[in-house]
Design a protein that fits this description.
30 strands; 17 helices; four-stranded antiparallel β-sheet; six-stranded antiparallel β-barrel
C-alpha cells in the first residue's frame, strides 16, 4: 500500500501548481507564510536570559495550524517545502516543532524553481532542517525586535505616536535625509563649453567638435569672457585635423538579474516600484497556467537572491536555443562571478525554460506579468550571448593652438544587443558617425557657439538608486529592499515626488534623534558589519546569541541616556484648505497605514475624518459628476465617478479635462504606454488621435 504524503508550502498559488505535478498519494497544503512568530503586543525576548524568544501561534492562524496537524497525523510522511531562504527555513522549523516532526529527520524539501522536473527531483533528495539558517533568521528577528520595540516607545513619547525605528529602515531614511542635506547645501559652480560645427570639404558633411584645451592640455572655462576669447580666436584660425584614431570597442552583456538589479531595472524601464516588482515576480515564480502541454508552470526561478550563478543544464539549454534562434556567432556561454558576501544557495533570476519565449505566451499573462517576464527572459538570454562590437573614430582638430575633439561610432555587430539593451539612469546619447577624416587635412568652420552651465547637486534617490546604494554598502539583503522602502514611505518619513524619494519633516526630525542618540543604528558601516555577523551565523562561524550579547549592553546604555536627553518635539500637522463641516476648523493631513487622510485637529472633541479627494477636472458621461482619482485594493490607479455607488462608471485610462470628443461630445481618455493616444470613452464612436508633443512631455515630466 502506497504511503500517504503531506507536502506543506507557503502560498496557496504554489500549492495549486505543485499539486498538479504530484500523484494522488500527495496532499499539498499552504501555511500562508509564518504560522508561529513573536507576539505583536510585547517584546517577547528575554534580554536577561540569552535573548530567548517567546513564540506564539499568530492570531487567526490557530484553525489553519489545527488543520495542518490533523493532516500530518494522517500522513506517513510530511515534507516541509517552504521557500528556499532563511525565512522559509525558519517557517519549516516552527512547523516541525508544532507538528511533532524531528528537525534532524529528512523532512525539508527545497526547489529553486517550480517545474515538474525540479519539484520531483527535490522530493527525491530531502534533507534535515538547516539550523544555521534558522539561527541566522532568529538572530535577525530578535535583533530587529529589540531595536524596534525599545526605540519606538521613546519616539512615541518624545515626538509622535505611531512612529517606529528599525535596523535597516533607519539607515535608509538617514541616507535619504543626508542626500537632501547635500542638495540644500550645494553651491553651484559656473562653467562654459564651446562647440564648433565643422564641415569636411570633400564629403560636405558636418560634425560637432567640443573644445578640449590649449596646446594639448585640458582647459576648463569658468566664465563667458574665456569662452568668447576662444570663439574669437577660432573664427580667425585655420582648422586642421591633427589626430585621427580608429578603433574597436566591445561591450559585454550584463549578468542575469539578482533581486536588487531586477528591482532597479524594473524601476527604470517599467516604472515599477520595488514592492510591485516583487509581487509580480512572486506570481511568475509560483506558477502560471499556460494551457496545452505546458499546463501550469513556474516561469522564473526564485526571485530573492543575490547570486549570479547559473545551473549547467539551464546554460546548455540557453546556448542551444539561442544558437538555433540567432546563429552560432551570436552565442557565448558565460558564468558570472558572484560578489564576495552574496548567498550562493540560489541561482540568479532566470526563466525556468528558455524555450518559453515571452511573446508566445503573452495572451496567457497579464500585461504586467508579460513585461516583467520579458525583462527577465531578455536579460538572461543576453547574458549568454556575444559581445556587441562598435567601430569607433575619434579626431582632434587644431585651431591656432586650441584643441577640439570629436568622436563617433557605429555598431558593426549587435551581439547581445539583438536581445537586450541595459537601462541606465541617464539616456545614452546616440553617437553619430564622423565623416572620413585624415590627419593634417584642413576642415572648415561652419558655426561656433558657447553655452553657460552650472554644476548640479547630487540627484535625489529613486527606488532604483536607493536599492543600489543599500546593496553596495551591504545594508539589508534581497528580501528586505522592497519592504524597507514601503515602510519608510508608509510611516511618513519619506514621500514620493514623481519617482524621487524626499524626506519629510518627520523623517528629518527622527533621523536627527537617531544620529544624536543611537549613532550605531544609523551608521552605514556598523549596519553592514552587523549584516556580515548575521551571515557568519548562517555559515556556522558564530553562535547567534553571541551577536546579541555583543550588541545589547552598549545599546541598553544608549537607551537610558536617550530617555533623559531627548527633549519633547512637537511636529505640527500640515493644514489643508478643507473646512471641517462639523466644527468649522481647518482640517489637517494625517497618515495611516493606508495612506494620507484628512482629520479634524479638534480631536477628541471632534472626530471628523475623511478620505482625500483628488479630482481630474473631467466629468462622468453617465451622470455628470466629477471623475476622481482612485486606487484599487492592489494599489492600481483608476478613475471613478464621485457619485459612487449610485453611479459606478469607471475607467483605467486617465480622463482628459477641458476637451470633448469632436465627433460625439463625449468623454476623452488618454492612453499612455506603447499605444499613446487620445480616444473617445464610447467604443461605438471610434474617435482617436495621437498625443501631441506637449501631452507626451507632460506625461514624461510626471514620471
Amino acid at each position: 500500500m502506497a504511503k500517504k504524503k503531506l507536502l506543506i508550502v507557503e502560498s496557496p498559488a504554489k500549492a495549486g501548481t505543485i499539486k498538479k505535478y504530484l500523484g494522488k498519494d500527495y496532499t499539498v497544503m499552504a501555511s500562508m507564510g509564518h504560522v508561529i512568530d513573536l507576539p505583536k503586543s510585547q517584546l517577547a525576548v528575554d534580554t536577561e536570559n540569552h535573548f530567548k524568544p517567546r513564540y506564539i501561534t499568530i492570531r487567526g492562524k490557530g484553525p489553519l495550524l489545527a488543520s495542518l496537524k490533523k493532516e500530518a497525523a494522517k500522513s506517513d510522511v510530511v515534507y516541509l517545502a517552504t521557500d528556499p531562504d532563511r525565512e522559509g527555513e525558519a517557517i519549516s522549523w516552527h512547523l516541525a516543532n508544532a507538528l511533532g516532526i524531528d528537525v534532524n529527520s529528512k523532512c525539508r524539501v527545497t526547489f529553486n524553481e517550480i517545474t515538474k522536473t525540479a519539484v520531483k527531483a527535490a522530493i527525491k533528495e530531502p534533507r534535515s532542517i538547516n539550523m544555521n539558517l534558522v539561527d541566522s533568521q532568529q538572530a535577525r528577528r530578535v535583533l530587529d525586535r529589540i531595536v524596534g520595540y525599545k526605540i519606538s516607545p521613546i519616539l512615541w513619547e518624545k515626538v509622535k505616536r505611531g512612529l517606529s525605528a528599525g535596523r535597516v529602515q533607519s539607515v535608509a531614511t538617514k541616507l535619504i535625509c543626508d542626500r537632501e542635506e547635500e542638495i540644500m547645501n550645494f553651491k553651484p559652480q559656473e562653467f562654459w563649453t564651446v562647440e564648433a560645427v565643422i564641415i569636411e570639404p570633400k564629403s560636405k558633411k558636418s560634425f560637432t567638435a567640443k573644445y578640449y584645451g590649449e596646446n594639448g592640455k585640458e582647459n576648463k572655462l569658468e566664465n563667458k569672457m574665456q569662452a568668447q576669447s576662444i570663439i574669437d580666436a577660432v573664427k580667425k584660425a585655420e582648422l586642421t585635423v591633427s589626430k585621427v584614431k580608429r578603433g574597436e570597442q566591445r561591450r559585454k552583456p550584463q549578468p542575469p538579474f539578482t533581486t536588487s538589479t531586477l528591482q532597479q531595472d524594473a524601476s527604470r524601464k517599467l516604472n515599477y516600484q520595488a514592492t510591485k516588482t516583487m509581487q509580480i515576480a512572486q506570481g511568475l515564480y509560483e506558477g502560471v497556467s499556460l494551457g496545452g502541454k505546458l499546463g501550469t508552470i513556474g516561469l522564473i526561478t526564485y526571485m530573492r537572491t543575490d547570486s549570479l550563478r547559473i545551473a549547467d543544464d539551464a546554460q546548455r539549454d540557453a546556448v542551444a536555443y539561442l544558437t538555433e534562434k540567432y546563429g552560432e556567432e551570436y552565442v557565448k556561454a558565460r558564468q558570472y562571478r558572484t560578489k564576495k558576501n552574496a548567498q550562493d544557495a540560489h541561482e540568479a533570476i532566470r526563466p525556468t525554460s528558455i524555450s518559453i519565449y515571452p511573446d508566445s505566451i503573452k495572451d496567457k499573462l497579464t500585461n504586467e506579468q508579460y513585461k516583467l517576464y520579458k525583462l527577465i527572459w531578455d536579460r538572461f538570454a543576453a547574458s549568454q550571448m556575444a559581445d556587441a562590437i562598435y567601430d569607433t573614430t575619434s579626431a582632434s582638430i587644431d585651431a591656432d593652438g586650441h584643441t577640439f575633439r570629436a568622436s563617433g561610432s557605429s555598431i558593426r555587430f549587435k551581439g547581445y544587443m539583438a536581445v537586450y539593451v541595459e537601462a541606465t539612469d541617464k539616456k545614452e546619447e546616440k553617437s553619430k558617425l564622423l565623416p572620413p577624416l585624415e590627419e593634417n587635412q584642413n576642415v572648415k568652420l561652419k558655426e561656433i557657439d558657447s553655452k553657460q552651465h552650472f554644476t548640479q547637486p547630487p540627484p535625489r534617490y529613486t527606488d532604483a538608486t536607493l536599492i543600489r546604494e543599500l546593496e553596495e554598502n551591504g545594508i539589508g539583503r534581497p528580501s528586505t529592499y522592497a519592504p524597507t522602502i514601503s515602510t519608510i514611505v508608509s510611516r511618513g518619513y519619506v514621500q514620493r515626488s514623481k519617482k524621487q524619494l524626499v524626506p519629510t519633516e518627520l523623517g528629518n526630525v527622527t533621523t536627527e534623534i537617531m544620529k544624536n542618540n543611537f549613532k550605531d543604528i544609523v551608521d552605514v558601516e556598523f549596519t553592514a558589519g552587523m549584516e556580515q555577523k548575521l551571515d557568519n551565523v548562517e555559515d556556522g562561524q558564530i553562535n547567534w546569541e553571541e551577536v546579541l550579547e555583543e550588541f545589547y549592553p552598549p545599546f541598553k546604555d544608549n537607551l537610558e541616556k536617550a530617555q533623559e536627553n531627548i527633549a519633547k518635539i512637537k511636529i505640527k500637522d500640515e493644514e489643508s484648505d478643507v473646512i471641517c463641516e462639523k466644527c468649522g476648523r481647518r482640517m489637517v493631513y494625517k497618515l495611516s497605514k493606508f495612506g494620507k487622510f484628512l482629520a479634524c485637529p479638534g480631536y477628541p472633541e471632534c472626530k471628523n475624518a475623511k478620505t482625500i479627494r483628488e479630482g481630474t477636472g473631467a466629468f462622468c458621461p453617465s451622470c455628470g459628476g466629477e471623475m476622481l482619482v482612485k486606487k484599487s485594493r492592489r494599489g492600481k490607479i483608476y478613475y471613478g465617478c464621485e457619485h459612487y455607488p449610485k453611479c459606478d462608471f469607471m475607467v483605467w485610462d486617465e480622463p482628459v479635462k477641458d476637451e470633448r470628443c469632436p465627433q460625439c461630445g463625449g468623454l476623452l481618455l488618454k492612453k499612455n504606454g506603447r499605444a499613446k493616444k487620445i480616444y473617445c470613452a464610447k467604443p461605438e464612436c471610434g474617435y482617436e488621435r495621437k498625443l501631441t508633443v506637449e501631452e507626451m512631455r507632460e506625461k514624461k515630466d510626471e514620471g
